[in-house]
Amino acid sequence: MSAAAFARDLSAWFRKNGRDLPWRRTTDPYAILVSEVMLQQTQVATVLERGHYTRWMERFPDFATLAAAEENAVLQAWEGLGYYRRARNLLALARTVAHRHGGVFPRDLESIRALPGIGPYTAGAVASFAHDTPAPLVDGNVARVLSRLDDDATPADSTAGQKRLWQRAAELVLAASSPRVFNAALMELGQTLCRPGAPLCLSCPVKKHCRATDPAALPVKRARPAPTRVVERVFLLQENGSVLLEQERGPRRTGLWKLPALPDAAHAAAPPVLLKTAYTITRYKVTLWVHEPPPGELVRAENHRLIPRAELGATPMPSPYRRALDTLLARREFRLH
Ligand code: SF4
Predict the structure, then answer these.
(1) Domain limits of the chain?
(2) First-residue to last-residue Cα distance in the chain
(3) What CATH number is given for 3-217 in this structure?
(4) By alpha-carbon position, which residue is closest to atom 8 of ligand 1?
(5) What are phi and psi of 191, to 5 degrees?
(6) Which of 97, 51, 91, 46 is nearest to 69 (CA)?
(7) pTM of the full predicted structure?
(8) Among the atoms of ligand 1, which is closest to the Cα of residue 205?
(9) Which residues approach ligand 1 with their CB closer than 6 A?
Protein backbone atom coordinates (compact mmCIF):
# COMPACT_ATOMS: atom_id res chain seq x y z
CA MET A 1 0.00 0.00 0.00
CA SER A 2 1.32 3.43 -0.87
CA ALA A 3 1.03 5.61 2.24
CA ALA A 4 0.70 8.78 0.15
CA ALA A 5 -2.08 7.36 -2.04
CA PHE A 6 -3.91 6.02 0.99
CA ALA A 7 -3.66 9.37 2.79
CA ARG A 8 -4.84 11.20 -0.32
CA ASP A 9 -7.89 8.95 -0.90
CA LEU A 10 -8.92 8.95 2.74
CA SER A 11 -8.51 12.72 3.10
CA ALA A 12 -10.50 13.38 -0.08
CA TRP A 13 -13.36 11.24 1.24
CA PHE A 14 -13.31 13.05 4.58
CA ARG A 15 -13.29 16.52 3.01
CA LYS A 16 -16.54 15.56 1.28
CA ASN A 17 -18.21 13.37 3.89
CA GLY A 18 -16.76 14.28 7.32
CA ARG A 19 -19.34 15.13 9.97
CA ASP A 20 -19.59 18.75 11.01
CA LEU A 21 -18.69 18.71 14.73
CA PRO A 22 -18.14 21.90 16.76
CA TRP A 23 -14.53 21.05 17.64
CA ARG A 24 -13.74 20.48 13.96
CA ARG A 25 -14.66 24.08 13.17
CA THR A 26 -11.86 25.46 15.31
CA THR A 27 -8.08 25.34 15.60
CA ASP A 28 -8.16 26.68 19.17
CA PRO A 29 -6.08 24.17 21.21
CA TYR A 30 -8.22 24.76 24.30
CA ALA A 31 -11.50 23.92 22.55
CA ILE A 32 -9.92 20.87 20.91
CA LEU A 33 -8.43 19.69 24.18
CA VAL A 34 -11.76 19.99 26.00
CA SER A 35 -13.52 17.96 23.30
CA GLU A 36 -10.79 15.30 23.27
CA VAL A 37 -10.82 14.90 27.04
CA MET A 38 -14.63 14.72 27.10
CA LEU A 39 -14.65 12.13 24.31
CA GLN A 40 -12.06 9.89 25.98
CA GLN A 41 -14.66 7.84 27.83
CA THR A 42 -17.91 9.39 26.66
CA GLN A 43 -19.68 9.03 23.33
CA VAL A 44 -19.97 11.88 20.81
CA ALA A 45 -23.77 11.78 21.08
CA THR A 46 -23.70 12.22 24.87
CA VAL A 47 -21.17 15.04 24.74
CA LEU A 48 -23.12 16.86 22.03
CA GLU A 49 -26.79 16.10 22.47
CA ARG A 50 -26.82 16.62 26.21
CA GLY A 51 -25.01 19.93 25.74
CA HIS A 52 -21.97 19.12 27.87
CA TYR A 53 -19.44 20.59 25.44
CA THR A 54 -21.41 23.76 24.70
CA ARG A 55 -22.17 24.44 28.37
CA TRP A 56 -18.54 23.87 29.36
CA MET A 57 -17.25 26.21 26.65
CA GLU A 58 -19.71 28.90 27.71
CA ARG A 59 -18.69 28.60 31.34
CA PHE A 60 -14.93 28.10 30.85
CA PRO A 61 -14.16 29.51 27.38
CA ASP A 62 -10.35 29.50 27.66
CA PHE A 63 -7.37 28.34 29.70
CA ALA A 64 -7.33 31.51 31.82
CA THR A 65 -10.98 31.20 32.91
CA LEU A 66 -10.60 27.53 33.74
CA ALA A 67 -7.30 28.10 35.56
CA ALA A 68 -9.00 30.65 37.84
CA ALA A 69 -12.00 28.42 38.63
CA GLU A 70 -12.62 26.64 41.95
CA GLU A 71 -12.27 22.85 41.80
CA ASN A 72 -15.80 22.45 43.15
CA ALA A 73 -17.26 24.47 40.26
CA VAL A 74 -15.22 22.47 37.74
CA LEU A 75 -16.39 19.13 39.14
CA GLN A 76 -19.97 20.31 39.18
CA ALA A 77 -19.75 21.40 35.52
CA TRP A 78 -18.35 17.97 34.64
CA GLU A 79 -21.32 16.18 36.16
CA GLY A 80 -22.98 13.66 33.84
CA LEU A 81 -19.70 12.84 32.06
CA GLY A 82 -18.26 10.63 34.82
CA TYR A 83 -14.59 9.73 35.30
CA TYR A 84 -13.98 12.95 37.21
CA ARG A 85 -10.23 12.56 37.13
CA ARG A 86 -10.47 14.00 33.61
CA ALA A 87 -11.96 17.24 34.97
CA ARG A 88 -9.26 17.52 37.60
CA ASN A 89 -6.57 16.89 34.98
CA LEU A 90 -8.04 19.57 32.73
CA LEU A 91 -7.97 22.03 35.61
CA ALA A 92 -4.34 21.15 36.47
CA LEU A 93 -3.41 21.47 32.82
CA ALA A 94 -5.11 24.88 32.47
CA ARG A 95 -3.22 26.10 35.54
CA THR A 96 0.08 24.84 34.10
CA VAL A 97 -0.60 26.56 30.77
CA ALA A 98 -1.56 29.77 32.59
CA HIS A 99 1.36 29.81 35.01
CA ARG A 100 4.21 28.14 33.10
CA HIS A 101 3.44 28.95 29.49
CA GLY A 102 2.03 32.46 29.89
CA GLY A 103 -1.47 31.26 28.96
CA VAL A 104 -0.37 30.05 25.50
CA PHE A 105 -0.65 26.36 24.66
CA PRO A 106 2.77 25.05 23.53
CA ARG A 107 3.26 24.06 19.88
CA ASP A 108 5.96 21.40 20.04
CA LEU A 109 4.98 17.82 20.75
CA GLU A 110 7.49 17.33 23.55
CA SER A 111 6.16 20.29 25.58
CA ILE A 112 2.59 19.17 24.93
CA ARG A 113 3.39 15.67 26.18
CA ALA A 114 4.95 17.11 29.34
CA LEU A 115 1.66 18.75 30.37
CA PRO A 116 -0.22 17.05 33.24
CA GLY A 117 -2.80 14.46 32.22
CA ILE A 118 -1.79 14.44 28.54
CA GLY A 119 -1.18 10.99 27.07
CA PRO A 120 0.17 10.19 23.60
CA TYR A 121 -3.30 10.12 22.05
CA THR A 122 -4.37 13.54 23.36
CA ALA A 123 -0.98 15.04 22.48
CA GLY A 124 -1.31 13.76 18.89
CA ALA A 125 -4.90 15.00 18.64
CA VAL A 126 -4.22 18.54 19.87
CA ALA A 127 -0.94 18.89 17.94
CA SER A 128 -2.50 17.77 14.66
CA PHE A 129 -5.97 19.33 14.98
CA ALA A 130 -4.78 22.67 16.36
CA HIS A 131 -1.41 23.13 14.68
CA ASP A 132 -1.55 20.69 11.74
CA THR A 133 1.60 19.00 13.09
CA PRO A 134 2.25 15.51 11.62
CA ALA A 135 1.77 13.84 15.00
CA PRO A 136 0.27 10.33 15.06
CA LEU A 137 -2.72 9.31 17.13
CA VAL A 138 -4.17 5.90 17.92
CA ASP A 139 -7.46 5.38 19.72
CA GLY A 140 -9.80 2.40 19.58
CA ASN A 141 -11.23 3.44 16.21
CA VAL A 142 -7.85 4.03 14.63
CA ALA A 143 -6.51 0.74 16.04
CA ARG A 144 -9.39 -1.10 14.37
CA VAL A 145 -8.84 0.58 10.99
CA LEU A 146 -5.07 0.03 10.99
CA SER A 147 -5.32 -3.61 12.12
CA ARG A 148 -7.73 -4.29 9.28
CA LEU A 149 -5.80 -2.34 6.64
CA ASP A 150 -2.70 -4.44 7.33
CA ASP A 151 -4.65 -7.61 8.18
CA ASP A 152 -2.66 -7.60 11.40
CA ALA A 153 -3.77 -10.02 14.13
CA THR A 154 -1.30 -8.82 16.77
CA PRO A 155 -3.48 -8.06 19.83
CA ALA A 156 -4.13 -4.33 19.62
CA ASP A 157 -3.94 -3.91 23.39
CA SER A 158 -0.58 -5.71 23.75
CA THR A 159 2.75 -3.86 23.97
CA ALA A 160 3.84 -5.24 20.59
CA GLY A 161 0.47 -4.36 19.03
CA GLN A 162 0.53 -0.81 20.38
CA LYS A 163 4.07 -0.31 19.11
CA ARG A 164 3.13 -1.43 15.61
CA LEU A 165 -0.04 0.66 15.54
CA TRP A 166 1.75 3.83 16.61
CA GLN A 167 4.53 3.26 14.09
CA ARG A 168 1.99 2.73 11.32
CA ALA A 169 -0.01 5.81 12.33
CA ALA A 170 3.23 7.86 12.32
CA GLU A 171 4.21 6.62 8.85
CA LEU A 172 0.80 7.42 7.42
CA VAL A 173 0.36 10.88 8.94
CA LEU A 174 3.80 11.87 7.63
CA ALA A 175 2.61 11.05 4.12
CA ALA A 176 -0.49 13.25 4.42
CA SER A 177 -0.67 16.75 2.96
CA SER A 178 -2.74 17.85 5.98
CA PRO A 179 -2.21 15.93 9.24
CA ARG A 180 -5.27 17.71 10.65
CA VAL A 181 -7.53 16.34 7.94
CA PHE A 182 -5.85 12.93 7.79
CA ASN A 183 -6.09 12.16 11.52
CA ALA A 184 -9.71 13.29 11.64
CA ALA A 185 -10.43 11.16 8.56
CA LEU A 186 -8.84 8.06 10.08
CA MET A 187 -10.98 8.44 13.19
CA GLU A 188 -14.10 9.15 11.15
CA LEU A 189 -13.56 6.04 9.04
CA GLY A 190 -13.38 3.94 12.23
CA GLN A 191 -16.48 5.60 13.69
CA THR A 192 -18.66 5.29 10.62
CA LEU A 193 -17.71 2.66 8.01
CA CYS A 194 -14.90 0.59 9.51
CA ARG A 195 -16.98 0.12 12.62
CA PRO A 196 -16.85 -2.67 15.22
CA GLY A 197 -18.30 -5.99 14.08
CA ALA A 198 -19.06 -6.08 10.36
CA PRO A 199 -17.62 -3.02 8.57
CA LEU A 200 -19.31 -1.40 5.55
CA CYS A 201 -16.51 -2.29 3.13
CA LEU A 202 -18.62 -1.77 0.02
CA SER A 203 -18.84 1.96 0.81
CA CYS A 204 -15.23 2.30 1.97
CA PRO A 205 -13.13 4.97 0.24
CA VAL A 206 -9.88 3.07 0.87
CA LYS A 207 -11.05 -0.43 -0.01
CA LYS A 208 -8.41 -0.82 -2.68
CA HIS A 209 -5.66 -0.25 -0.08
CA CYS A 210 -7.10 -2.68 2.47
CA ARG A 211 -5.73 -6.20 2.99
CA ALA A 212 -8.32 -7.46 5.50
CA THR A 213 -9.60 -10.94 4.65
CA ASP A 214 -11.94 -11.29 7.63
CA PRO A 215 -12.29 -7.70 8.91
CA ALA A 216 -15.01 -8.54 11.45
CA ALA A 217 -12.43 -10.66 13.33
CA LEU A 218 -10.08 -7.67 13.76
CA PRO A 219 -8.71 -6.14 15.83
CA VAL A 220 -7.73 -9.03 18.06
CA LYS A 221 -7.82 -8.18 21.76
CA ARG A 222 -6.52 -9.99 24.79
CA ALA A 223 -9.17 -11.69 26.93
CA ARG A 224 -10.64 -9.32 29.51
CA PRO A 225 -11.07 -10.37 33.15
CA ALA A 226 -14.70 -10.84 34.22
CA PRO A 227 -16.23 -7.72 35.85
CA THR A 228 -15.93 -7.52 39.61
CA ARG A 229 -19.22 -7.28 41.49
CA VAL A 230 -19.34 -4.72 44.28
CA VAL A 231 -22.09 -3.81 46.76
CA GLU A 232 -22.42 -0.26 48.09
CA ARG A 233 -24.76 0.44 51.02
CA VAL A 234 -25.63 4.04 51.79
CA PHE A 235 -28.45 5.78 53.66
CA LEU A 236 -30.70 8.78 53.22
CA LEU A 237 -31.06 11.12 56.19
CA GLN A 238 -32.96 14.40 55.99
CA GLU A 239 -33.08 17.09 58.67
CA ASN A 240 -34.89 20.42 58.47
CA GLY A 241 -34.87 20.56 54.69
CA SER A 242 -31.26 19.36 54.35
CA VAL A 243 -29.80 16.05 53.24
CA LEU A 244 -26.78 14.47 54.90
CA LEU A 245 -24.01 13.89 52.35
CA GLU A 246 -20.48 12.55 52.58
CA GLN A 247 -17.51 13.94 50.68
CA GLU A 248 -15.45 11.28 48.89
CA ARG A 249 -11.77 10.96 49.64
CA GLY A 250 -10.84 7.94 47.54
CA PRO A 251 -8.59 8.29 44.49
CA ARG A 252 -11.45 8.11 41.99
CA ARG A 253 -13.99 10.69 43.08
CA THR A 254 -12.15 12.89 45.56
CA GLY A 255 -14.13 16.02 46.36
CA LEU A 256 -17.47 14.74 45.08
CA TRP A 257 -20.46 14.33 47.38
CA LYS A 258 -22.61 11.23 47.76
CA LEU A 259 -25.07 9.67 50.16
CA PRO A 260 -23.17 8.57 53.28
CA ALA A 261 -22.00 4.97 53.58
CA LEU A 262 -23.99 2.80 55.94
CA PRO A 263 -21.70 2.27 58.97
CA ASP A 264 -20.28 -1.27 59.11
CA ALA A 265 -21.97 -1.82 62.49
CA ALA A 266 -25.39 -1.23 60.86
CA HIS A 267 -24.95 -3.80 58.11
CA ALA A 268 -26.13 -6.73 60.26
CA ALA A 269 -29.27 -4.86 61.37
CA ALA A 270 -29.81 -3.75 57.74
CA PRO A 271 -32.22 -0.80 58.06
CA PRO A 272 -35.16 -0.94 55.59
CA VAL A 273 -34.25 -0.46 51.93
CA LEU A 274 -35.56 2.66 50.18
CA LEU A 275 -34.06 1.98 46.75
CA LYS A 276 -31.94 -0.60 44.96
CA THR A 277 -30.18 0.37 41.75
CA ALA A 278 -27.14 -0.67 39.73
CA TYR A 279 -24.42 0.95 37.68
CA THR A 280 -21.17 0.00 35.99
CA ILE A 281 -17.88 1.82 36.26
CA THR A 282 -14.72 0.61 34.54
CA ARG A 283 -14.59 -3.13 35.39
CA TYR A 284 -16.91 -2.92 38.38
CA LYS A 285 -20.60 -3.82 38.42
CA VAL A 286 -21.99 -2.03 41.42
CA THR A 287 -25.27 -2.71 43.21
CA LEU A 288 -26.24 0.38 45.16
CA TRP A 289 -28.62 -0.07 48.10
CA VAL A 290 -30.07 3.05 49.71
CA HIS A 291 -31.32 2.39 53.25
CA GLU A 292 -33.20 4.33 55.87
CA PRO A 293 -30.83 5.86 58.46
CA PRO A 294 -29.27 3.37 60.88
CA PRO A 295 -31.08 3.10 64.23
CA GLY A 296 -29.65 4.83 67.31
CA GLU A 297 -27.50 7.90 67.48
CA LEU A 298 -25.50 8.56 64.37
CA VAL A 299 -21.83 9.41 64.77
CA ARG A 300 -21.13 12.08 62.15
CA ALA A 301 -17.81 11.80 60.38
CA GLU A 302 -15.86 14.99 59.64
CA ASN A 303 -16.57 14.58 55.91
CA HIS A 304 -20.34 14.51 56.56
CA ARG A 305 -22.34 17.65 55.95
CA LEU A 306 -26.01 18.59 55.91
CA ILE A 307 -26.62 20.24 52.53
CA PRO A 308 -29.83 22.28 52.07
CA ARG A 309 -32.03 20.77 49.36
CA ALA A 310 -31.88 24.02 47.38
CA GLU A 311 -28.09 23.62 47.11
CA LEU A 312 -28.05 20.00 46.00
CA GLY A 313 -28.14 20.95 42.30
CA ALA A 314 -24.87 22.89 42.62
CA THR A 315 -23.17 20.17 44.68
CA PRO A 316 -20.88 17.96 42.53
CA MET A 317 -22.13 14.38 42.73
CA PRO A 318 -21.45 11.20 40.73
CA SER A 319 -24.35 10.52 38.34
CA PRO A 320 -25.51 7.21 39.92
CA TYR A 321 -25.93 9.00 43.26
CA ARG A 322 -27.60 11.99 41.65
CA ARG A 323 -30.13 9.70 39.97
CA ALA A 324 -30.79 7.76 43.18
CA LEU A 325 -31.20 10.93 45.22
CA ASP A 326 -33.47 12.59 42.65
CA THR A 327 -35.63 9.45 42.51
CA LEU A 328 -35.99 9.34 46.28
CA LEU A 329 -36.59 13.06 46.78
CA ALA A 330 -39.32 12.97 44.14
CA ARG A 331 -41.27 10.50 46.28
CA ARG A 332 -44.14 11.95 48.22
CA GLU A 333 -42.88 10.81 51.63
CA PHE A 334 -39.63 12.76 51.18
CA ARG A 335 -40.98 15.92 49.60
CA LEU A 336 -42.08 17.58 52.84
CA HIS A 337 -38.93 17.18 54.93
S1 SF4 B 1 -12.27 -2.04 3.36
FE2 SF4 B 1 -13.51 -2.56 5.11
S3 SF4 B 1 -12.07 -3.36 6.62
FE4 SF4 B 1 -10.87 -2.30 5.07
S5 SF4 B 1 -10.62 -0.22 5.91
FE6 SF4 B 1 -12.42 -0.18 4.57
S7 SF4 B 1 -14.16 -0.58 5.94
FE8 SF4 B 1 -12.28 -1.18 7.04
Answers:
(1) 3-217, 228-335
(2) 69
(3) 1.10.340.30
(4) 194
(5) -80, -25
(6) 91
(7) 0.78
(8) 6
(9) 145, 148-149, 193-194, 199, 201, 204, 206-207, 210, 212, 215
